[in-house]
């Protein structure tokens, strides 16, 4: 029997189905905001995606608009059951742990296999059944989203209307990545703005891999850099976060990129195996030094969605 899609009452503005929509991005802040105009959501540790349901088919795009439906097949299958004729959903692909936390490196390992544990956590709805919802208030969009994901395997990111600092303290205490705070009646605005802000429990950054270190033949970490215009500036050496699998994968990906000279704009006094600066790594650290180097940096995985 054909899957019956239900069409709810008309909301938003009548519009043709869009192509990829540039996502709204949260700005980093020092302190989680407080007050009644803000709602707070859990910050997940995964891949940001945009899911398009149209003409009985689903596509899954990365935050840069790359079609990764083939890599996120389970997410596409789950999203096919949304209670909508057509929809554009904003969310994050994660691998949830039993304690509710998510981990980017676990997600990466999962994607190398059959990806049966991945889940889409949805947090916004941009388009529904021929109507553009981006000018509706956030809470109205989330209300409609909650209806269409109900009784499917797509999860819904709940909002919490509590004091921001309390939410942040609790999130960090239980091992979550952080908090995203949003203006409750804001429209959906593409690009980075101040209606969505984020605060992470540990600092995270996507950095360019400049080379790797060997202790004899043994893996001894990554050299990373930060882009400043056309220059690559040294951002430290990452010694932690590697296991047998990630080390083998990094060597496989980096060895074809080996070059004789350092890719940094200003030479550093370290010995290393230098590479063309083409691969990006997700790095977590406690704090940043005055020179911009991460303190206690930890490798979380390669970024291939950027």
Structural class: alpha+beta
What is the CATH level 1 assignment of the largest domain?
Alpha Beta
CA-based shape: globular
Q: What kind of sheet is the major sheet?
A: 7 strands, mixed
Please identify, by name, the CATH architecture of the largest domain.
Answer: 2-Layer Sandwich
How is the CATH topology of the largest domain named?
D-amino Acid Aminotransferase, Chain A, domain 1
SSE run: EEEEEHEHEEHEHEEEEEHEEEEE
Number of domains: 2
N-end to C-end Cα span:
40 Å
Give the CATH H-level superfamily of the largest domain: DNA ligase/mRNA capping enzyme
- The percentage helix is 10-25%
Overall pLDDT level = 90
The Rg value, from CA coordinates, equals: 21 Å
Strand fraction: 35-45%
Number of helices: 5
Low-confidence stretches: none
Number of strands: 19
Give me a quick take on this structure.
The protein has helices at 73-79, 104-111, 138-149, 164-173, 244-254; strands at residues 13-14, 24-28, 38-43, 47-54, 57-62, 87-94, 119-128, 131-132, 155-156, 178-183, 191-200, 203-215, 218-228, 231-238, 273-274, 280-285, 287-288, 294-295, 298-303. The chain has 306 residues and is of the alpha+beta class. A hairpin with a 7-residue loop joins strand 10 and strand 11.
Task: Provide structural commentary.
The chain has 2 domains: 23-200, 2-Layer Sandwich (D-amino Acid Aminotransferase, Chain A, domain 1), CATH 3.30.470; 203-303, Nucleic acid-binding proteins (OB fold (Dihydrolipoamide Acetyltransferase, E2P)), CATH 2.40.50. 39% of the residues are buried. Helix content is 16%, strand content 38%. It has 306 residues and is an alpha+beta fold. The chain has helices at 73-79, 104-111, 138-149, 164-173, 244-254; strands at 13-14, 24-28, 38-43, 47-54, 57-62, 87-94, 119-128, 131-132, 155-156, 178-183, 191-200, 203-215, 218-228, 231-238, 273-274, 280-285, 287-288, 294-295, 298-303. It is built from 5 helices and 19 strands. Strands 1, 4, 5, 6, 7, 8 and 9 form a 7-stranded mixed β-sheet that branches. Strands 12, 13, 14, 15, 16 and 19 form a 6-stranded antiparallel β-sheet that branches. The longest helix has 12 residues, at 138-149.
């Amino acid at each position: 029997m054909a899957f019956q899609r239900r069409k709810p009452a008309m909301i938003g503005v009548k519009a043709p189905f869009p192509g990829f929509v540039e996502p709204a991005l949260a700005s980093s802040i020092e302190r989680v905001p407080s007050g009644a105009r803000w709602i707070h959501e859990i910050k997940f540790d995964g891949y940001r995606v945009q899911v398009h349901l149209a003409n009985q088919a689903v596509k899954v795009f990365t935050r840069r608009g790359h079609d990764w439906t083939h890599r996120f097949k389970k997410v596409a299958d789950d999203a096919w059951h949304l209670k909508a004729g057509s929809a554009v959903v904003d969310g994050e692909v994660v691998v949830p742990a039993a304690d509710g936390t998510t981990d980017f490196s676990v997600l990466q390992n999962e994607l190398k296999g059959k990806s049966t544990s991945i889940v889409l956590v949805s947090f916004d709805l941009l388009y529904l059944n021929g109507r553009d919802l981006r000018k509706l208030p956030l809470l109205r969009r989330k209300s409609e989203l909650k209806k269409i994901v109900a009784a499917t395997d797509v999860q819904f990111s709940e909002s919490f209307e509590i004091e921001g600092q309390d939410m942040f303290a609790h999130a960090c205490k239980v091992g979550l990545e952080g908090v995203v705070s949003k203006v409750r009646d804001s429209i959906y605005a593409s690009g980075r703005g101040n209606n969505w802000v984020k605060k992470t429990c540990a600092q995270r950054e996507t950095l360019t891999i400049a080379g790797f270190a060997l202790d004899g033949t043994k893996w001894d970490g990554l050299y990373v850099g930060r882009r400043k215009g056309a220059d690559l500036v040294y951002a430290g050496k990452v010694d932690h976060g590697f296991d047998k699998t990630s080390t083998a994968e990094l060597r496989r990906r980096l060895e074809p990129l080996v070059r004789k000279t350092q890719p940094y704009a200003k030479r550093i006094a370290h010995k290393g195996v230098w590479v063309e600066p083409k691969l990006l790594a997700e790095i977590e650290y406690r704090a940043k030094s005055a020179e911009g180097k991460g303190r206690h940096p930890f490798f979380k995985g390669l970024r291939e969605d950027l």
